[in-house]
Specification:
By secondary structure, the chain is mostly helical. The chain has a single domain, classed as Winged helix-like DNA-binding domain superfamily/Winged helix DNA-binding domain (Arc Repressor Mutant, subunit A). It is 63% helix and 6% strand. Strands 1-2 form a two-stranded antiparallel ribbon.
């Protein structure tokens, strides 16, 4: 940067860019766990993970929770159904809606991947002390809450 460019934004120091860049790198590094051991795509992993965490979700709920678009979620659901990892059930509260149910095979796969995912995470965060890990997680939650607050029209 020249001296006349002093006031220009340096993209490398800009938080949104740093977060996206880091997220991509972390996600790509973690991908080998569910790709090699579970033969899952990132989208399938995310759908299966949310379906395991909360029973009775619809595709729309997954879109909202995972910040994924409808066509991507629909494709991942179809692929998971084809592998018999999930099944779609008629919603008891709305007969027009279908909810995602994880099959025994899907639960077994997720249970097999869980210790690998946790080991991967522990290794990634091993550069932190326990106190630093705790503080890091607290700060992530604070930033997430702040972004969610900004979604309301009052702050903008």
């Amino acid at each position: 940067m020249s001296k006349t460019d002093k006031k220009l934004l340096n993209i490398n120091d800009f938080l949104p860019y740093q977060l996206v860049s880091l997220s991509t790198k972390v996600s790509n590094d973690f991908a080998h766990v569910y790709e090699q051991k579970g033969e899952l795509t990132q989208q399938q992993w995310r759908v299966l993970s949310h379906a395991i965490q909360t029973e009775g979700l619809t595709a729309k709920h997954i879109c909202e929770l995972a910040s994924m678009d409808k066509s991507t979620v629909s494709r991942a659901i179809k692929q998971l159904q084809d592998r018999e990892l999930i099944e779609m059930l008629v919603s008891p509260s709305d007969k027009r809606a279908k909810t995602i149910a994880v099959t025994e095979q899907g639960r077994a796969l997720y249970q097999a991947l869980t210790p690998l995912a946790l080991a991967w995470e522990a290794e990634l965060l091993s550069c932190f002390s326990d106190e630093q890990k705790e503080k890091f997680m607290e700060l992530l939650v604070l930033v997430q809450q702040r972004v969610e607050q900004r979604d309301s029209p009052k702050i903008r």
